[in-house]
Amino acid sequence: AGVIMKEGQNVRGLNTAATLWCSAAIGACTGCDMIAEAALLTAFILGANTVLRVLVKWIDRRLPPQIEPVDRE
Question: Which residues are 10's β-sheet partners?
Answer without folding.
Answer: 7
